Amino acid sequence: MTFWADEEASLLAPDRDHVIRDSKTPSGTVPISGLRGPIITDALYRTFKRRGLRIRYVFTIDDYDPMDSASMKLVAGMAEHMGKPLCSIPSPDLAYSDFARYNADRYLATFEALGIRPGEIHWLRELYRSGALDRQIDLVLRNAGTIRRIYAEVANVQKDDRWLPIAVICESCGRIGTTSAYDYDGTTVAYDCMKDYVTWAEGCGRSGRISPFKGNAKLYWNLQWCAMWDHFAVTYEEGGKDLLTEGGSRDRANEIYREVWKTDPPLGLMHEFLNVGGRKMSTSRPEEWAKLGASAHELVGTYPPEMVRFLMLRTDPKRHIDFDPTGMSLPRLLDEYDRCADQYALDPESDLGRIWALSQVDDDPAPPAYRVRFSIVADWLQIPSVDPMRKASERKGAALTDPEAADLRRRMELARIWLERWAPEEAKFRVQDELPDAARTLSPGQRRFLERAAGVVTDRMDPDALQQQLYGIAREVGLVEGEKVSKRAFEAIYLAFLGRSMGPKAAWLLATLPADFVRRRLREASAAVAPA
User: Fold this and answer.
1) Nearest of 99, 85, 121 to residue 28 by alpha carbon
2) By the 8 A CB rule, do 463 and 525 touch?
3) The pLDDT value given to residue 294
4) What is residue 530's predicted lDDT score, i.e. its pLDDT?
5) Where does the pLDDT of residue 365 fall: very low under 50, low under 70, confident under 90, or very high at 90 and above?
6) Are the CB atoms for 306 and 260 separated by under 8 Å?
7) Cα–Cα distance, 226 to 254 (Å, whole number)
8) Share of the chain above pLDDT 90, in %
9) For 217-251, what is each residue's pLDDT tens digit?
10) Which class for 482: exposed (0-12), middle (13-18), buried (19 or more C-beta within 10 A)?
11) Of 155, 196, 394, 425, whose CA is between 20 and 30 Å from 387?
12) pLDDT tens track for 95-107
């Protein structure tokens, strides 16, 4: 079966120039789900280039859209700006010129960290105000009747006979979301700025005529999409499920492009949603995910960039992603990442190898030869006697290379944050200085197990070998349930060292501690009994 990105590349003609495009509306802080599209697009762009296609990567910022977010209306001082172009609203941070720049610049800053490097970034305010889109605006207005028919046939959206698919900026109040345009005479349009045109903003009531060119108006979303395809000669544009469902925005745009522009629309796959904690994320409900640290810029500031890319690429774009920063999701994600890295070392052209390679910031990646499992790093950080760098070198049997040391440092940094913010209680522990009282309630079988275990503890313990020895001792002392070793055996170790019935893998815990301390604690626990 062909890797999904290669399959898309095979759809593009090899003997012509191509343009791949992506875009973002900077209406608020972007959740992590807002990174899936750009990362998929970047992966496709890299694949297209790798396949020898002549390709440009264009990214547009839709900052001429109106502010229509219901949650933003509740923000202090924002109500008066509802319905205005995003680029005309003051920034909440004086370091930025306006609201759109505030959101877009923070979003775009994640691109460099993630290795997403569009060849061109265009702002819609500049395209509209420069007149670069005037030809497309005129074409749309002259074909308004055709567009109204397509809306009705494709999406069952009915518009009256005078409706024009364009939003005028009101000369009085500066709003773009509250105006209804009609009567295009080839030079100007009539418009009404209506108080009740939309539910999220109130117009001022002005009526007048104005030229729709040079930034006085913008095309509605479906038509703006077509205008971008035409202006940049786009041949490929993927998109999210919310836009590409049957009868939705993309279907309308495709049909309009065929009938009005008289050419085929760009190709492009549809990617599914990324759900956080089982729920679809939205820029309009930041209060639901802010506490998870689930904004795009915070995720990129916390996770290594290759992990953010891997989160978005490990799952086929046509399947949804379920991710929750809390719990054990992050350790499992790192384990999958390491599995793909191992596969890349064996076969770079395998699907798992390709996923790993496309997850890297650089185009010429090489996985560190030795890596420490993330869950083990998290365990090491909770044991004061352990120096992770030295421990890793001991386990490897040689000094870490520079890439291996850098990889371990990144994992240590991420593990500290995970333990502080997202790790479940069962993943957290502290080795007790004194024998915990809970260890005085062990059964005779558990005490025999600990006594025998003390005898196999050596100064240089291999965790895998020790784990097998512990299994054997448990069977010898009768701590079995059917054919399996009883969990009561390892529970005895956790109670003796942690004072709780759960913990990290037992042999790994013991192997990280000084051997003298381990032997002493095991024997102390094996001899301890509860007070009468």
Assistant:
1) 99
2) no
3) 57
4) 60
5) confident
6) no
7) 8
8) 78
9) 999 999 999 999 999 999 999 998 877 677 778 99
10) exposed
11) 425
12) 999 999 999 999 9
Q: Which of 524, 115, 151, 62 is nearest to 358 (CA)?
A: 115
Neighbours of 320 (CB within 10 A): 15
DSSP 438: G
Residue 269's contacts (CB-CB under 8 Å, 6 or more residues apart) are 4, 8, 238, 317, 318
CA atoms within 13 A on the CB side of 393: 10
Q: Can you tell me the distance from the alpha carbon of 289 to that of 326, in angstroms, rounded to the nearest whole number? A: 12
Mean pLDDT, rounded, of the chain:
92
Cα 459 → chain centroid? 44
Q: How far apart (Å, rounded) are the C-alpha atoms in residues 412 and 336?
A: 18
Q: Which residues, listed in sequence order, are joined to residue 179 by a DSSP beta bridge? A: 193
Instruction: Determine contact, residues 165/172, Cβ cutoff 8 Å.
Output: no
Task: Write down the residue that tokens 């044991």 correspond to.
Answer: 383
**Residue 444 and residue 452 in contact, taking contact as beta carbons nearer than 8 Å:** no
Task: Round to whole Å and give the CA distance between 86 and 79.
Answer: 13
| CA nearest to 468, candidates 489, 439, 488, 482 | 489
Integer angstrom CA distances of residue 402 from 92, 365, 397: 42, 15, 15
Return d(Cα 280, Cα 76) in angstroms, integer: 26
Q: How far apart are CA 458 and CA 225, in angstroms?
A: 68
pLDDT of the residue at 288 = 46
- Give the residue with greater pLDDT, 132 vs 281: 132
Report CA torsion sign: 511, 513, 517, 520: negative
- Inform me whether the pLDDT recorded for 285 exceeds 70: no
Q: 3-state class of 60 per DSSP?
A: strand
Render pLDDT for 386-402 as a digit per residue (tens, 0 to 9).
899 999 998 899 999 99
State yes or no: pLDDT of 518 exceeds 90.
yes
pLDDT at 17 over 60: yes
Q: For residue 349, count CB atoms less than 10 angstroms from its CB and return exposed for 0-12, middle for 13-18, buried for 19 or more.
A: exposed
Quick one: which of 268, 248, 331 has its CA closest to 504? 331
| CA pair distance 157, 169, nearest whole angstrom | 24
Give the separation between CA 58 and CA 120, rounded to whole angstroms. 5
| HEC string for 341-374 | HHHHHHCCCCHHHHHHHHCCCCCCCCCCCCCCCH
Phi first, then psi, for residue 296 (nearest 5°) are -60, -45
Amino acid at position 295, single letter: S
What gap in Å lies between CA 168 and CA 22, rounded to an integer? 25
CA–CA separation, 85 vs 64, rounded Å?
5
The predicted pLDDT at position 283 comes to 46
Question: Which element (helix H / strand E) includes 527?
Answer: helix 515-527
